[in-house]
Amino acid sequence: MATCCRLIRCRGDVCARRSATAAFASGYNGPMRKPPSILATRPTENSRFLRTEQVDLEFSNGARRTHERLRSSGLGAVVIVPMLDDDTVLLVREYGTGIGRYELGLPKGRLDQDETVEQGADRELKEEVGYGARDLHILTTLSLAPAYMSSMTHVVIARDLYPERLQGDEPEELEVVPWKLSELHTLLGEPEVSEGRSIAALFIAREYLAGRFQPRA
Description:
This protein is of the alpha+beta class. The chain folds into 2 domains: 37-71; 77-209, Nucleoside Triphosphate Pyrophosphohydrolase, CATH 3.90.79. It has helices at residues 2-10, 14-29, 117-128, 184-187, 196-209, and strands spanning 37-43, 51-58, 64-71, 77-82, 88-96, 101-105, 108-110, 131-143, 152-163, 175-180.
């Protein structure tokens, strides 16, 4: 899409717009490139929290590169969209050490050993929000930064909620904030809303509930 925008800015006439549109459509609908071959992987110096490795790649045109990536340290993660009713989603306000401030978003967490996605979502919901769910449905799976991270996050919508709390590992009880999905556009203007997974999951859930999106089988 950036190429399309550059073409329009550089050539402001109608032909340029047509060329840009055609270029974008061709790139989107064209054949997929062959993935690069992984020639070798090796660990790099790791921290207590992060695990990294170097990956030697050879692309289909013969170009070789060495990239670094962060390896997932668990079995994946879940982000939950808990629907209190047909239009009310429950958000949590939690301190984000990485950005040094509180962030308003959806409950989320890593899966434990031998947990299914639904079980992990229900546990995290009880730990962070104080509700369980009788109806849990996986909508999709999101990557975070696919250029250098291998971790994936499952988006789960939770409905038919009932009060139940489990003890989690949070250092403080999280503030639960109800928000209307029909007012999602106003949520985007809040200064403490910036976490990409939460924003994406909310839009996905809204489209699913409206019947405009169906999860892939």
